[in-house]
Specification:
With 258 residues, this protein is an alpha+beta fold. The protein has a 3-stranded antiparallel sheet. A two-stranded antiparallel sheet has the order 1-2. The radius of gyration is 24 Å and the shape is flat. The two termini are 37 Å apart.
Amino acid sequence: MVAHRIADPLILRLIGKWLNAGFMVGGVVTRTEEVSPQGGPISPILSNIYLHFVLDLWFEKKIRPACQGEAYLTRFADDFVVNFQYRRDAEEFQKNLTDRFGKFGLEVAEEKTRVMRVGRFVRGDLAKTGDKPDTFDFLGFKHVCGTDRGGKFASVRVPCIKSRRKFLAKSKEWLRQHRHWKRQDQQKQLTMMLRGFYQYFGLHHCKPKLDGIRREVQRQWVRSLRRRGQRHRLYWSYLQSQSWFELPYAVSALHATV
């Protein structure tokens, strides 16, 4: 597949050597006879090239023209979401996808794969039975069939539970390892971490979730500071008046659009 676009034999030979080089763990070299080395920097590039031919082009050339309605594929690395106008097209694609992947030594993660209804009419149809629309996680966001302030349909995206837990676990571990840093230095680091989280998840509907992340980081920080000694005066009434205890809000999320 690489040779389809790259004709230079030196580059192709270099990639071949890279794949056969193996990897080292604890000073022990392990040779790889199949697939690319786990964690190798070339693995993401080759997997994208592989899935470009196996999935992307196949979908555009074969699947999409055969669908009775509209169809769209969104892929990032090995995660992808496919939208179909008609359910029968989605079910036919799911069946063909398993056969397609099998020809190239790939498997579909059944526990993460499902067919579900989304769109502007789902909430109204399910309201008759009292059910709620299904949701799905993709690229760290939880996608929900919601409404905007005017009551019209809107595709709402908020940080999923896994993303929030992962960030809070990271901030908690950082505070544990740097418990005795100066308070101002801790503030700078936590501010950088929060702003990075805000920049990725800073969409309009994410503001309440991001404020909750900020409050939890503050709680983690307080617990970490109190562990420095048995005697402390770090009560909330005192901390709220201290400039070094301030952490940024996700104000940019107010101006983002869905």
